Task: inverse folding
């Protein structure tokens, strides 16, 4: 974590802190997967608390929501993924899980659409699924984003899926789930080019540097999914301090 | 043993699965079912969204259809997993066996009793169908392997699959063969241990089976077996 006492000028320190704070507010931070233990989850939540930042959301698995919800109250809403990452669970079950997550106090959700339908070009089925999700839970969560594996799709497939999500009334789209599927600038540009600001686009997967994060923000994204967001924030701080102080190295 | 006999033995242990694949189409699922019928693979394991495609073509009672639950993380509350089984059954397709990812991370966190209870409840929920569970043997100690094998055996679990086949996507190492061997030793032959992962060489398959692995959950059994001038 950055040592703020290393900046002599308190005005600059405060300015850079505010900039880094605003940046982190756009980021998802957290820990997910088959193996993180309770200790890992608490430690990750504590890291966020100790940083002094608030995040867009703290990403955690469903069975650990109870552990971190109160710890992170006022710091970050909780985010969970449904039917992650390939969306092959029954729709009725996805809807059940979303209702359960709401009951547990989760405020930010991504739900993986049926990738088999997607790759089979059953776009009407994708539309029905997205419509059902939007009908039941549109407006219920702070953010509700269907996940599409754009990096495995052609441009025409991405556009076709976004068209049906448009018809379904979807507001936010998470582009790629992470788990080794990495978003690219081209995917975001494609969506923005064809749909302008119709969707709140959430890039995810492989965002590791300040350059990447700022590029996605420049492309019109307002949410960044990155396991490295605290490291990226550190990179931002160092750059900004250098800019303001003219220091060679911090 | 002749190579042909070896191939025939391997065939019986194959579980043709698509759950660890990202890209999946209806045609792929239909082809899975067709290949099972043509080549005599006795079991296929799919996600619930694949069932419609499978049953579009499957008309052979000899091929068992298994479905995954809570795959791949297993990090859902018990109520969610029970609901997933209910929703799966409500789809109306015949599902012969369940392959479930339990809350493995909760076990690793020390909640043994919770883990035991989960397995028993899920076994009951399966309504008499065989239940298999996934773990990640690559991140388990020997004592944990023995413990999980014992818990699973006492809960009536059919087999333990040594990896979800998804480990690399979670940035953890899949189990090495040595670790799978340790799991088999830990099982004391009370409960079967299966393999799930990439397998392209028939010699690797034979090595696993010689070690004592019961099933090979693979995504491309035909390539595994047809790299020989043999009948499959």
Result:
């Amino acid at each position: 974590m950055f040592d703020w006492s290393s900046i002599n000028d308190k005005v600059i320190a405060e300015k850079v802190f505010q900039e880094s704070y605003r940046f982190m507010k756009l980021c998802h931070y957290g820990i997910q997967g088959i193996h993180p233990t309770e200790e890992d989850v608490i430690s990750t939540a504590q890291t966020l608390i100790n940083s002094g930042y608030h995040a867009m959301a703290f990403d955690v698995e469903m069975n650990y929501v109870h552990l971190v919800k109160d710890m992170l109250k006022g710091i970050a809403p909780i985010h969970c993924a449904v039917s992650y990452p390939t969306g092959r669970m029954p729709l009725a079950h996805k809807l059940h899980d979303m209702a359960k997550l709401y009951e547990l106090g989760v405020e930010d959700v991504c739900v993986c659409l049926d990738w088999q339908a997607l790759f089979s070009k059953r776009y009407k089925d994708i539309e029905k699924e997205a419509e059902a999700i939007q009908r039941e839970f549109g407006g219920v969560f702070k953010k509700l984003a269907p996940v599409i594996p754009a990096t495995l799709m052609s441009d025409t497939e991405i556009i076709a899926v976004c068209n049906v999500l448009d018809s379904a009334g979807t507001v936010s789209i998470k582009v790629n789930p992470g788990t080794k599927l990495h978003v690219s600038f081209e995917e975001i540009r494609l969506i923005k080019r064809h749909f302008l600001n119709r969707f709140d686009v959430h890039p995810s997967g492989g965002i590791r540097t300040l350059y990447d994060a700022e590029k996605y923000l420049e492309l019109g994204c307002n949410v960044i999914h990155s396991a490295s967001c605290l490291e990226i924030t550190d990179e931002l701080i160092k750059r900004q301090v250098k800019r303001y102080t003219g220091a060679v190295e911090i | 043993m002749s190579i042909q006999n070896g191939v025939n033995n391997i065939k019986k242990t194959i579980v043709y699965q698509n759950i660890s694949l990202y890209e999946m189409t209806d045609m792929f699922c239909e082809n899975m079912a067709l290949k099972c019928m043509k080549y005599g693979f006795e079991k296929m394991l799919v996600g619930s969204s694949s069932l419609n495609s499978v049953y579009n073509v499957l008309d052979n009672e000899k091929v068992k259809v298994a479905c995954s639950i809570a795959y791949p993380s297993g990090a859902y509350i018990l109520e969610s997993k029970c609901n997933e089984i209910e929703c799966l059954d409500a789809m109306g397709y015949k599902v012969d066996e369940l392959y479930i990812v339990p809350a493995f991370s909760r076990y690793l966190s020390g909640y043994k009793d919770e883990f035991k209870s989960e397995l028993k409840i899920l076994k009951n929920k399966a309504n008499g169908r065989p239940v298999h569970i996934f773990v990640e043997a690559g991140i388990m100690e020997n004592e944990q392997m023995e413990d999980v094998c014992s818990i699973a055996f006492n809960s009536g679990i059919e087999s333990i699959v040594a990896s979800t086949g998804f480990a690399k996507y979670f940035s953890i190492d899949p189990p090495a063969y040595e670790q799978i061997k340790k799991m088999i030793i830990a099982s004391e032959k009370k409960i079967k241990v299966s393999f799930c992962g990439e397998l392209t060489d028939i010699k690797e398959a034979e090595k696993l089976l010689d070690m004592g692995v019961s099933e090979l959950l693979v995504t491309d059994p035909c390539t595994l077996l047809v790299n020989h001038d043999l009948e499959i």
